Amino acid sequence: MRQQIIAGNWKMHTNLAEATILVEGLKKALAEAKTEREVVVCPPFTGLSTVCDLADETTIRVGAQNMHYEVSGAFTGEVAPTMLTDLGCHYVILGHSERRQYFGDTDELINKKIKAAFANDIVPILCVGESLEQREANETQAFIDSQLEQGLVDLTAEQVGQMVIAYEPIWAIGTGKTATAEQAGEVCTAIRKKVASLFGADAAEAVRIQYGGSVKGSNAKEILSQADIDGALVGGASLKVEDFMAIITA
Ligand code: PGA
Q: How far is CA 164 from the centre of its chain?
C-alpha cells in the first residue's frame, strides 16, 4: 500500500516569523487531527534551517523547492544537495513548471538533479504537466511521456519506485482552475503505465503520484480518492494552517 503524501510548496512566500507560525500551527493541528497521510512542507531556502529545526522529532517532513546537481563548487547563488541534507531536508521538488518556464530548467538538467538527489539520500518530487495549448491539441500524454522519458533517464527501477511524481497541469496552477478528479486521475493512471513500460511493474506499483494545481479543502477528497492519485502538491492552500489541514484531513 502506498502512503498518501500531501506536500505544501510555499514557493517564494514566508519570512522567518511567518514560516515559524505556519509550522507551529501545523504541528499543533496534526497532533490533534491524526492522519495516515505523510505531510511535507517545502519552504523557501531561507526558511529551511528554521523549519527543519521546528519539524525535528515530529511527523512533518521538510523539502526544498530546487537544488543544484553538484555537491560544491563555483556556482554562485546555487544550493547543493549536501547543504540540504545537512539541515535535515528529506525531499526536493524538481522540475516545477515555474522553474521550467522562468528559469530554463530543461529535462536534461532536471535528470541530473534527480540523480544528484538520489546520490545524496534526498527523495525527488518530479513535476510534470502540460500547458493549456497542449491539452487542447490533444498532446497531453505524449508531452508527459517525453518529460518522463527524459527526466528519468538512467535511473534504476528501485530509485523510481522510491520517488514521487507530481502531475501538475500548468493551466491549473495558481489559476483556481482545477482539473476534474477524472481528468487528474486519468493522467496519473497513464503516468503509472508509462513508468511500468520504462521501469517495470514493481516500480510502477511503488511510485507515488501526486496531483497538483489549485487543490483545496473543497476538491481534495474527490481528487485523493482516484485510484492512481497518491497525494497532492499544494501551493496557495498550503500557506494557511486551516486550508492545508482541510486537504490533509479530506
Ligand atoms: P497551486 O500551486 O496549488 O497554488 O495551484 C500548485 C503548485 O504549483 O505546486
A: 7
The per-residue pLDDT for range 30-56, each reduced to its tens digit, is 999 989 999 999 999 999 999 999 999
Q: How many CB atoms lie within 10 A of CB 131?
A: 16
Could you state, in order of their start, the residue ranges of all structural domains in the chain? 5-248
Task: For residue 96, indicate whether it is catalytic.
Answer: yes
Ligand 1, closest atom to CA 173?
5
Distances (CA, A) of 174 to 62, 180, 210: 22, 15, 16
Out of 68, 96, 98, 130, the active site residue is 96
**Which ligand 1 atom lies nearest to the CA of residue 9?**
9
Q: How confident is the model at residue 1 (pLDDT cuts 50, 70, 90)?
A: confident
Name the residue of 173, 177, 211 to mutate for ligand 1: max ligand atoms within 8 A of Cβ. 173
Task: Give the homologous superfamily in CATH for domain 5-248.
Answer: Aldolase class I (3.20.20.70)
pLDDT, tens digit, for every residue of 76-89?
A: 999 999 999 999 99
